[in-house]
Amino acid sequence: MPVFFVVGSVSSFSEFAIKTTGGWLCPAGSTPESYSYATTTADEFGNQQPSTAYELHCVDSSGNVVKTDPVFYAFLWIGIWALIGAVVSGVLTFVFAVPGGMLVTKLLNKLKRPSTNINSSNYPKFE
Fold it and tell me: Are 92 and 78 in contact (CB under 8 A)?
């Protein structure tokens, strides 16, 4: 599951992510485009470091920006990957749980001492 979060985070500023999420978030008649700009961020020691920020811009046919989304498209994209990860994790759980359960059961049956079988044929009959 963490692998899918990383994949979603790393690919959230890709052109494919912008086009996919922009198809849902942009108004009709507009085209989703990636917009990036230089900014700064603080590192773990509080020092300012240069970084690049990405936004989703919805552009109409005349080239005007109709809508700007700096964050939600990335959360949506990461959420899609998290959902895919949950489905894959669920499938893998069932794929490995059944054989694993059978293996543990067989191992425990081999380790278990044989029980004495008491049935009525071993006892004398009183008539």
Answer: no
Q: Which amino acid is at 18?
A: I
Low-confidence stretches of the chain (pLDDT beneath 70): 113-127
The candidate with the shortest Cα–Cα distance to 63, out of 95, 31, 35, 92, is 31
Return the axis-axis angle of helices 72-111 and 15-25, rounded to nearest 10°.
110
Q: What is the pTM of this model?
A: 0.70
